[in-house]
Amino acid sequence: MYQVTLLDKTSKDQVDQCLDLLLTSFQGDLDYFKWKHDLEGQYHLEEYTFCIFQDQLCIATTQVIVHQMFVSGHTHRFGLLCDGATHKDYRRLGLFEKLLSHINQFSQQHNIDFVYSTGNKKSRKALFKLGFEDFFTTLKASKRIRYNHPLLILYNLTKLAIVGLSLPKTHAVKPITLDDYANFYAQHKGDIEISFDKNSDYLKWRLDETTGTYHVYGIFNDADMVSGVVVLKITDNRLYIMDLLASNSKDIDSLLTYVDAVAINHKAIHKINASHNNFAAYKNQLISHKYDMSHQDNSALIYITNPDFKLSNLYLENMHYMRIDKNE
Protein backbone atom coordinates (compact mmCIF):
# COMPACT_ATOMS: atom_id res chain seq x y z
CA MET A 1 0.00 0.00 0.00
CA TYR A 2 2.73 2.47 0.96
CA GLN A 3 5.52 2.71 -1.60
CA VAL A 4 9.03 3.98 -0.89
CA THR A 5 10.42 6.27 -3.57
CA LEU A 6 13.63 8.24 -4.00
CA LEU A 7 12.92 11.96 -3.76
CA ASP A 8 12.81 13.52 -7.23
CA LYS A 9 14.62 16.83 -6.74
CA THR A 10 13.33 18.07 -10.09
CA SER A 11 9.74 17.77 -8.84
CA LYS A 12 8.66 20.92 -7.02
CA ASP A 13 5.65 19.12 -5.54
CA GLN A 14 7.75 16.29 -4.07
CA VAL A 15 10.41 18.64 -2.74
CA ASP A 16 7.83 20.97 -1.16
CA GLN A 17 5.96 18.08 0.45
CA CYS A 18 9.20 16.62 1.84
CA LEU A 19 10.28 20.01 3.17
CA ASP A 20 6.89 20.52 4.82
CA LEU A 21 7.33 17.27 6.76
CA LEU A 22 10.92 18.09 7.77
CA LEU A 23 10.03 21.62 8.88
CA THR A 24 7.17 20.40 11.06
CA SER A 25 9.24 17.55 12.54
CA PHE A 26 12.56 19.22 13.35
CA GLN A 27 13.97 22.56 14.47
CA GLY A 28 15.93 23.39 11.30
CA ASP A 29 14.85 26.15 8.94
CA LEU A 30 14.34 25.99 5.17
CA ASP A 31 17.95 26.85 4.29
CA TYR A 32 19.20 24.15 6.65
CA PHE A 33 17.24 21.36 4.94
CA LYS A 34 18.10 22.67 1.48
CA TRP A 35 21.76 22.43 2.52
CA LYS A 36 21.49 19.07 4.21
CA HIS A 37 19.70 17.40 1.30
CA ASP A 38 21.66 19.39 -1.32
CA LEU A 39 18.37 20.31 -2.98
CA GLU A 40 20.01 22.94 -5.19
CA GLY A 41 22.91 20.72 -6.28
CA GLN A 42 25.61 23.00 -4.88
CA TYR A 43 27.84 20.30 -3.44
CA HIS A 44 29.56 17.09 -4.48
CA LEU A 45 27.53 15.11 -1.98
CA GLU A 46 26.26 11.57 -2.38
CA GLU A 47 22.98 11.49 -0.52
CA TYR A 48 19.64 9.80 -0.99
CA THR A 49 16.35 11.04 0.46
CA PHE A 50 13.68 8.34 0.53
CA CYS A 51 10.03 9.27 0.92
CA ILE A 52 6.56 7.77 1.13
CA PHE A 53 3.89 9.96 -0.46
CA GLN A 54 0.15 9.70 0.14
CA ASP A 55 -2.74 12.08 -0.55
CA GLN A 56 -0.51 14.96 -1.71
CA LEU A 57 1.62 14.62 1.43
CA CYS A 58 5.06 13.29 2.24
CA ILE A 59 4.01 11.06 5.12
CA ALA A 60 7.46 9.61 5.94
CA THR A 61 11.06 10.26 4.99
CA THR A 62 14.62 9.23 5.87
CA GLN A 63 17.90 10.42 4.41
CA VAL A 64 21.13 8.49 3.82
CA ILE A 65 24.40 10.40 3.40
CA VAL A 66 27.10 8.21 1.85
CA HIS A 67 30.71 8.75 2.85
CA GLN A 68 34.00 6.88 3.15
CA MET A 69 35.76 5.27 6.09
CA PHE A 70 39.41 4.17 6.05
CA VAL A 71 40.32 1.04 8.02
CA SER A 72 44.00 0.07 7.99
CA GLY A 73 44.43 1.46 4.49
CA HIS A 74 41.22 -0.05 3.10
CA THR A 75 38.35 2.16 1.93
CA HIS A 76 34.76 1.37 2.86
CA ARG A 77 31.60 3.17 1.81
CA PHE A 78 29.00 3.68 4.51
CA GLY A 79 25.63 5.36 4.91
CA LEU A 80 24.69 7.71 7.74
CA LEU A 81 20.96 7.78 8.54
CA CYS A 82 19.50 11.26 9.07
CA ASP A 83 16.18 13.07 9.27
CA GLY A 84 13.85 10.15 9.89
CA ALA A 85 10.36 11.66 10.20
CA THR A 86 6.76 10.46 10.01
CA HIS A 87 3.67 12.64 9.61
CA LYS A 88 1.67 12.81 12.85
CA ASP A 89 -1.44 11.35 11.18
CA TYR A 90 0.40 8.30 9.85
CA ARG A 91 2.36 7.09 12.85
CA ARG A 92 2.28 3.52 14.21
CA LEU A 93 1.86 2.11 10.70
CA GLY A 94 5.42 0.77 10.43
CA LEU A 95 6.45 3.40 7.88
CA PHE A 96 9.86 4.07 9.46
CA GLU A 97 10.60 0.32 9.48
CA LYS A 98 9.54 0.15 5.83
CA LEU A 99 11.96 2.96 4.96
CA LEU A 100 14.79 1.31 6.91
CA SER A 101 14.23 -2.05 5.24
CA HIS A 102 14.30 -0.35 1.83
CA ILE A 103 17.50 1.53 2.72
CA ASN A 104 19.25 -1.65 3.86
CA GLN A 105 18.42 -3.35 0.55
CA PHE A 106 19.40 -0.24 -1.41
CA SER A 107 22.76 -0.16 0.40
CA GLN A 108 23.51 -3.77 -0.48
CA GLN A 109 22.86 -2.96 -4.14
CA HIS A 110 25.08 0.16 -4.16
CA ASN A 111 28.30 -1.15 -2.62
CA ILE A 112 27.64 0.41 0.79
CA ASP A 113 29.35 -1.76 3.40
CA PHE A 114 27.34 -0.63 6.39
CA VAL A 115 24.68 1.82 7.54
CA TYR A 116 24.89 3.53 10.89
CA SER A 117 22.73 5.75 13.01
CA THR A 118 22.99 7.46 16.36
CA GLY A 119 19.23 7.01 16.68
CA ASN A 120 16.97 8.70 19.20
CA LYS A 121 14.85 6.87 21.76
CA LYS A 122 11.87 6.65 19.41
CA SER A 123 13.80 5.20 16.47
CA ARG A 124 16.09 2.76 18.28
CA LYS A 125 13.36 0.15 18.79
CA ALA A 126 12.79 -0.05 15.02
CA LEU A 127 16.53 -0.03 14.34
CA PHE A 128 17.15 -3.00 16.64
CA LYS A 129 14.14 -4.82 15.19
CA LEU A 130 15.62 -4.60 11.69
CA GLY A 131 19.01 -5.97 12.71
CA PHE A 132 21.01 -2.91 13.78
CA GLU A 133 23.57 -3.62 16.50
CA ASP A 134 25.63 -1.60 18.96
CA PHE A 135 28.58 -0.03 17.15
CA PHE A 136 30.38 2.22 19.63
CA THR A 137 29.56 4.67 22.38
CA THR A 138 30.74 8.20 21.72
CA LEU A 139 32.29 10.44 24.33
CA LYS A 140 31.60 13.94 25.53
CA ALA A 141 34.15 16.38 26.91
CA SER A 142 33.18 19.67 28.51
CA LYS A 143 34.93 22.45 30.36
CA ARG A 144 33.49 25.41 32.25
CA ILE A 145 35.16 28.69 31.24
CA ARG A 146 33.20 31.31 33.15
CA TYR A 147 30.17 31.64 35.40
CA ASN A 148 27.08 33.85 35.37
CA HIS A 149 26.82 34.38 39.13
CA PRO A 150 27.71 37.96 40.19
CA LEU A 151 29.92 36.66 43.02
CA LEU A 152 32.16 34.93 40.46
CA ILE A 153 32.86 38.00 38.31
CA LEU A 154 36.28 38.38 39.92
CA TYR A 155 37.08 34.75 39.00
CA ASN A 156 36.13 35.46 35.38
CA LEU A 157 38.25 38.60 35.23
CA THR A 158 41.25 36.87 36.79
CA LYS A 159 41.03 34.02 34.28
CA LEU A 160 40.82 36.50 31.41
CA ALA A 161 43.93 38.28 32.66
CA ILE A 162 45.95 35.10 33.09
CA VAL A 163 44.84 33.04 30.08
CA GLY A 164 43.26 35.54 27.71
CA LEU A 165 46.19 37.90 27.47
CA SER A 166 48.42 34.98 26.49
CA LEU A 167 46.51 34.36 23.23
CA PRO A 168 48.90 36.23 20.89
CA LYS A 169 51.84 34.30 22.36
CA THR A 170 50.30 30.82 22.30
CA HIS A 171 52.47 28.91 19.86
CA ALA A 172 52.39 29.14 16.07
CA VAL A 173 48.63 28.79 15.67
CA LYS A 174 46.82 30.70 12.95
CA PRO A 175 43.79 30.37 10.64
CA ILE A 176 44.10 28.01 7.68
CA THR A 177 41.95 27.25 4.64
CA LEU A 178 39.73 24.21 4.15
CA ASP A 179 42.17 23.00 1.48
CA ASP A 180 45.01 23.21 4.03
CA TYR A 181 42.87 21.20 6.44
CA ALA A 182 42.03 18.58 3.79
CA ASN A 183 45.69 18.32 2.71
CA PHE A 184 46.89 17.82 6.28
CA TYR A 185 44.32 15.08 6.83
CA ALA A 186 45.26 13.36 3.55
CA GLN A 187 48.91 13.30 4.60
CA HIS A 188 48.20 11.80 8.02
CA LYS A 189 45.16 9.55 7.59
CA GLY A 190 47.52 6.59 7.31
CA ASP A 191 48.68 7.27 10.88
CA ILE A 192 45.20 6.42 12.20
CA GLU A 193 43.82 2.89 12.31
CA ILE A 194 40.33 4.01 11.43
CA SER A 195 39.00 7.41 10.33
CA PHE A 196 36.47 9.13 8.09
CA ASP A 197 37.36 10.94 4.87
CA LYS A 198 37.79 14.70 5.03
CA ASN A 199 38.32 15.81 1.43
CA SER A 200 37.81 19.40 0.28
CA ASP A 201 34.37 18.73 -1.24
CA TYR A 202 33.10 17.13 1.95
CA LEU A 203 34.47 19.95 4.13
CA LYS A 204 32.96 22.66 1.93
CA TRP A 205 29.56 21.03 2.40
CA ARG A 206 30.00 20.09 6.05
CA LEU A 207 31.29 23.52 7.14
CA ASP A 208 28.90 25.59 5.07
CA GLU A 209 27.77 28.78 6.81
CA THR A 210 24.18 27.48 6.79
CA THR A 211 25.00 25.48 9.91
CA GLY A 212 26.98 28.18 11.70
CA THR A 213 30.30 29.98 11.68
CA TYR A 214 33.33 27.73 11.80
CA HIS A 215 36.95 28.61 12.49
CA VAL A 216 39.76 26.35 11.27
CA TYR A 217 43.17 26.79 12.88
CA GLY A 218 46.48 25.09 12.17
CA ILE A 219 49.57 24.80 14.30
CA PHE A 220 52.83 25.13 12.38
CA ASN A 221 56.15 23.40 13.01
CA ASP A 222 59.66 24.85 12.65
CA ALA A 223 59.57 24.19 8.90
CA ASP A 224 56.38 26.29 8.68
CA MET A 225 54.31 23.21 7.82
CA VAL A 226 50.89 22.45 9.35
CA SER A 227 51.36 19.85 12.09
CA GLY A 228 47.91 19.96 13.66
CA VAL A 229 44.37 21.25 13.10
CA VAL A 230 41.49 22.28 15.31
CA VAL A 231 38.01 23.24 14.05
CA LEU A 232 35.82 25.41 16.28
CA LYS A 233 32.21 26.54 16.16
CA ILE A 234 30.72 29.22 18.38
CA THR A 235 27.00 28.91 19.17
CA ASP A 236 25.43 31.33 21.65
CA ASN A 237 27.44 30.89 24.85
CA ARG A 238 29.27 27.70 23.88
CA LEU A 239 32.34 26.88 21.89
CA TYR A 240 32.36 23.46 20.20
CA ILE A 241 35.49 21.55 19.26
CA MET A 242 34.41 20.04 15.94
CA ASP A 243 37.69 18.34 15.09
CA LEU A 244 41.12 17.96 16.66
CA LEU A 245 43.93 16.24 14.83
CA ALA A 246 47.71 16.50 15.17
CA SER A 247 50.83 14.54 14.37
CA ASN A 248 52.07 14.48 17.98
CA SER A 249 50.80 14.93 21.54
CA LYS A 250 52.71 18.18 22.06
CA ASP A 251 50.71 19.82 19.29
CA ILE A 252 47.45 18.53 20.78
CA ASP A 253 48.37 20.20 24.06
CA SER A 254 49.23 23.43 22.24
CA LEU A 255 45.92 23.43 20.33
CA LEU A 256 43.92 22.77 23.51
CA THR A 257 45.72 25.67 25.19
CA TYR A 258 44.85 27.85 22.22
CA VAL A 259 41.18 26.79 22.41
CA ASP A 260 41.13 27.86 26.07
CA ALA A 261 42.48 31.27 25.12
CA VAL A 262 39.92 31.70 22.32
CA ALA A 263 37.09 30.86 24.71
CA ILE A 264 38.37 33.17 27.44
CA ASN A 265 38.78 36.08 25.05
CA HIS A 266 35.24 35.61 23.71
CA LYS A 267 33.29 37.12 26.61
CA ALA A 268 30.02 35.35 25.73
CA ILE A 269 31.50 31.84 26.01
CA HIS A 270 30.69 30.01 29.23
CA LYS A 271 31.62 26.47 28.23
CA ILE A 272 33.71 24.45 25.79
CA ASN A 273 32.04 21.29 24.51
CA ALA A 274 33.22 18.40 22.39
CA SER A 275 30.48 15.84 21.87
CA HIS A 276 29.78 12.89 19.54
CA ASN A 277 33.42 11.84 19.60
CA ASN A 278 35.69 8.89 20.05
CA PHE A 279 38.96 10.48 21.09
CA ALA A 280 40.49 7.76 23.23
CA ALA A 281 43.95 8.84 22.08
CA TYR A 282 43.37 12.34 23.46
CA LYS A 283 41.45 11.41 26.59
CA ASN A 284 44.33 11.84 29.06
CA GLN A 285 45.31 15.16 27.50
CA LEU A 286 41.74 16.44 27.72
CA ILE A 287 41.59 15.43 31.37
CA SER A 288 44.91 17.19 32.02
CA HIS A 289 43.35 20.33 30.52
CA LYS A 290 40.51 20.06 33.07
CA TYR A 291 37.82 18.66 30.77
CA ASP A 292 35.07 16.52 32.31
CA MET A 293 34.60 13.28 30.37
CA SER A 294 31.38 11.30 30.00
CA HIS A 295 29.64 8.99 27.56
CA GLN A 296 26.75 9.86 25.26
CA ASP A 297 23.43 8.46 26.48
CA ASN A 298 22.98 6.15 23.48
CA SER A 299 25.48 4.16 21.44
CA ALA A 300 25.80 4.49 17.69
CA LEU A 301 24.16 1.57 15.88
CA ILE A 302 25.35 -0.30 12.80
CA TYR A 303 23.76 -2.53 10.17
CA ILE A 304 26.35 -4.43 8.12
CA THR A 305 25.31 -4.91 4.50
CA ASN A 306 28.60 -6.42 3.30
CA PRO A 307 29.33 -9.71 5.15
CA ASP A 308 33.06 -9.30 4.39
CA PHE A 309 33.22 -6.05 6.37
CA LYS A 310 34.59 -6.63 9.83
CA LEU A 311 35.66 -4.17 12.50
CA SER A 312 37.44 -5.29 15.65
CA ASN A 313 37.12 -3.56 19.00
CA LEU A 314 40.82 -2.72 18.77
CA TYR A 315 40.13 -0.62 15.68
CA LEU A 316 37.25 1.13 17.43
CA GLU A 317 39.50 1.99 20.36
CA ASN A 318 41.83 3.78 17.95
CA MET A 319 39.18 5.38 15.76
CA HIS A 320 39.42 9.09 15.05
CA TYR A 321 35.78 10.17 15.13
CA MET A 322 34.91 13.77 15.91
CA ARG A 323 31.81 15.89 15.54
CA ILE A 324 32.99 16.93 12.06
CA ASP A 325 32.45 13.32 10.95
CA LYS A 326 28.81 13.35 12.05
CA ASN A 327 26.11 15.31 10.31
CA GLU A 328 24.46 18.09 12.34
Descriptive notes:
This protein is α+β, with helices and mostly antiparallel strands and 328 residues long. Helices cover 31% and strands 31% of the residues. The chain has ten helices and 16 strands. The strands form two sheets. Strands 1, 2, 3, 4, 5, 6, 9, 15 and 16 form a nine-stranded mixed sheet that branches. Strand 12, helix 8 and strand 13 (271-277) form a beta-alpha-beta unit. The relative contact order is 0.16. The mean pLDDT is 88.
What's the helix and strand layout?
Blueprint: E1 4-6, H1 12-25, H2 30-36, E2 47-54, E3 57-71, E4 74-86, H3 95-109, E5 114-117, H4 121-129, E6 133-136, E7 139-144, H5 153-162, E8 173-175, H6 178-188, E9 194-196, H7 200-206, E10 214-220, E11 226-235, E12 238-246, H8 249-265, E13 271-277, H9 283-288, E14 292-295, E15 300-304, H10 313-317, E16 319-320
Parallel strand pairs: 4-5, 9-16, 12-13
Antiparallel strand pairs: 1-2, 2-3, 3-4, 3-9, 5-15, 6-15, 7-13, 7-14, 8-10, 10-11, 11-12
The helix-strand sequence is: EHHEEEHEHEEHEHEHEEEHEHEEHE
What's the structural domain tally? 2
* Poorly predicted ranges: none
The portion of residues forming beta strands comes to: 25-35%
Query: What is the fourth-level CATH superfamily of the largest domain?
Result: Gcn5-related N-acetyltransferase (GNAT)
Q: What is the chains' assembly state?
A: single chain
**Overall strand count:** 16
- Number of discrete helical segments: 10
What's the overall average pLDDT, rounded? 88
Q: What fold name stands as the CATH topology of the largest domain? A: Aminopeptidase
How widely separated are the two ends?
Answer: 33 Å
The amount of helix comes to 25-40%
What is the CATH C level class of the largest domain, in words? Alpha Beta
Q: Based on CA inertia axes, which overall geometry fits?
A: globular
- Please identify, by name, the CATH architecture of the largest domain: 3-Layer(aba) Sandwich
Instruction: State Rg.
Output: 21 Å
